[in-house]
Amino acid sequence: MKYEAVIGLEVHAQMLTDTKVFCGCSTKFGSEPNSQTCEVCIGMPGVLPVLNKKALEFAIRTGLATNCTISSYSRFARKNYFYPDLPKGYQISQYEHPICEHGFIEIVVDGEVRRIGITRIHMEEDAGKNIHEGGGHYSLVDLNRAGVPLMEIVSEPDIRSPREASEYMRKLRAVLRYLGVCDGNMEQGSLRCDANVSVRPTGQKEFGTRAEVKNINSFRFVEKAVEYEIKRQIKVIEEGGKVIQETRLWDSTKGITESMRSKEEAHDYRYFPEPDLVPIIADRSWVGEIKAALPELPDARRDRFVKEYGIPEYDADLLTSEKAVAEWFEDAIRAGGQPKAVSNWMMGDLMRLLNEENKFIEECPLKPSQLTEMLKLINKGTISGKIAKTVFEEMYRSGKNAEEIVREKGLVQISDESAIEKLVDEVIARHSKEAERFRGGDEKLLGFFVGQVMKATKGKANPQMLNELLKKKLS
Ligand code: ADP
Ligand code: MG
Ligand code: ZN
């Protein structure tokens, strides 16, 4: 590789507070346009913002969970720019004194642990939304979103590949969701990501010129947009050109990034301290309380799953990426399930069925104890692992219990040796040519004989017994 990519992500997370950051308006999504507004969030002159303590708590909680230092002195600042969705003409944000700094999160890529630094987490207000519809020569503005609290989480330029970028996003999203501070929904815009991308010749110390890619509005696109941008920049350099510092837009239908504007600098925004809000001196004992109340986080839970349940790290990682999935797993274990068996069924059939219907595990029609009951039937030999697949799907679709399904559909495994022996004899007699070939060394044919008996029993023959009998009779 002649070039190395350098990536830093700026992530905006909408906080799950009930009310806005500087007024008491509701943050509920999808209401009638402009129905959740007041003098403060539509920017009337002469009104005063008051900080929502919950938003501050959420930002501190996130900082603590990502190994940040919580600033003993923090301030808001005005970021000045004009846009119709920003009626005040400035956004209240933080600049010189963000609430959290110097943190990190860890990701695992190709079995290697990588630590990605978090430069800062600051609080700010969201803007409204311009609506261009109806085809007239006008746009509409909905200010319901204006003043919804955001956290901006800025990473160090520590990310080196598109895979690392998406892993970082995944991990960050998992942490935010575990903390209950953001729902992490990229499609609805409650989690947004801008990617700063540059390339440099491998071995060079200095960073190359970066482009900032905006509008990455789905999880899948984090990786794609970064990948495209790296290739584009390498091509520019290879052709003798220079990468220019600019803001680019990701076009997901074309799968490319396009130049939007030259990159603005901080001084363009004329940041200055927000005079209407007092500085934040977060009480240390309050910060301590927030820290003590942190839930178990994804990494810790993954490590515990490996240790406590003896499942592979790969399983543990998948099972803990969502809190609700981890809880489903542990409920099934508590109901008596074998950890590895539960994990296999969850990662395989359960996830497949949920994905087919685009469902979250919270909407899973199956209870953890139902899976455990089915596993008991397999262990007792009542049903085979193969038949269990049918039972599982039926359980998922109908909500019935495994035992009921097995009884109704007559799926009980045939473990009567003499019954299977009879079928084996019949099949071998019927297929004497294949039997000859098998005995002559064509061992692949075993599968053929298994298939014949399974067909005759509708898959219900005890597979172990069948295998042993076939081998004995064909030897
Ligand atoms: P701005 O606020 O103008 O976007 P920042 O200095 O806050 O600029 O940096 C934003 C992001 O850009 C950070 O995530 C940082 O890690 C990343 N970054 C800075 N320099 C580079 C670079 N040369 N290549 C890639 N990313 C970079
Ligand atoms: Mg930026
Ligand atoms: Zn308001």
TrEMBL record:
<dbReference type="GO" id="GO:0050566">
    <property type="term" value="F:asparaginyl-tRNA synthase (glutamine-hydrolyzing) activity"/>
</dbReference>
<dbReference type="InterPro" id="IPR003789">
    <property type="entry name" value="Asn/Gln_tRNA_amidoTrase-B-like"/>
</dbReference>
<keyword id="KW-0808">Transferase</keyword>
<keyword id="KW-0547">Nucleotide-binding</keyword>
<comment type="subunit">
    <text>Heterotrimer of A, B and C subunits.</text>
</comment>
<keyword id="KW-0067">ATP-binding</keyword>
<dbReference type="InterPro" id="IPR006075">
    <property type="entry name" value="Asn/Gln-tRNA_Trfase_suB/E_cat"/>
</dbReference>
<dbReference type="GO" id="GO:0050567">
    <property type="term" value="F:glutaminyl-tRNA synthase (glutamine-hydrolyzing) activity"/>
</dbReference>
<dbReference type="InterPro" id="IPR004413">
    <property type="entry name" value="GatB"/>
</dbReference>
<dbReference type="InterPro" id="IPR018027">
    <property type="entry name" value="Asn/Gln_amidotransferase"/>
</dbReference>
<comment type="similarity">
    <text>Belongs to the GatB/GatE family. GatB subfamily.</text>
</comment>
<keyword id="KW-0648">Protein biosynthesis</keyword>
<dbReference type="InterPro" id="IPR023168">
    <property type="entry name" value="GatB_Yqey_C_2"/>
</dbReference>
<dbReference type="InterPro" id="IPR017959">
    <property type="entry name" value="Asn/Gln-tRNA_amidoTrfase_suB/E"/>
</dbReference>
<dbReference type="GO" id="GO:0070681">
    <property type="term" value="P:glutaminyl-tRNAGln biosynthesis via transamidation"/>
</dbReference>
<dbReference type="GO" id="GO:0006412">
    <property type="term" value="P:translation"/>
</dbReference>
<dbReference type="Pfam" id="PF02637">
    <property type="entry name" value="GatB_Yqey"/>
</dbReference>
<dbReference type="InterPro" id="IPR014746">
    <property type="entry name" value="Gln_synth/guanido_kin_cat_dom"/>
</dbReference>
<dbReference type="GO" id="GO:0016740">
    <property type="term" value="F:transferase activity"/>
</dbReference>
<dbReference type="GO" id="GO:0005524">
    <property type="term" value="F:ATP binding"/>
</dbReference>
<comment type="function">
    <text>Allows the formation of correctly charged Asn-tRNA(Asn) or Gln-tRNA(Gln) through the transamidation of misacylated Asp-tRNA(Asn) or Glu-tRNA(Gln) in organisms which lack either or both of asparaginyl-tRNA or glutaminyl-tRNA synthetases. The reaction takes place in the presence of glutamine and ATP through an activated phospho-Asp-tRNA(Asn) or phospho-Glu-tRNA(Gln).</text>
</comment>
<protein>
    <recommendedName>
        <fullName>Aspartyl/glutamyl-tRNA(Asn/Gln) amidotransferase subunit B</fullName>
        <ecNumber>6.3.5.-</ecNumber>
    </recommendedName>
</protein>
<keyword id="KW-0436">Ligase</keyword>
<feature type="domain" description="Asn/Gln amidotransferase">
    <location>
        <begin position="327"/>
        <end position="474"/>
    </location>
</feature>
<dbReference type="InterPro" id="IPR042114">
    <property type="entry name" value="GatB_C_1"/>
</dbReference>
<dbReference type="InterPro" id="IPR017958">
    <property type="entry name" value="Gln-tRNA_amidoTrfase_suB_CS"/>
</dbReference>
<dbReference type="Pfam" id="PF02934">
    <property type="entry name" value="GatB_N"/>
</dbReference>
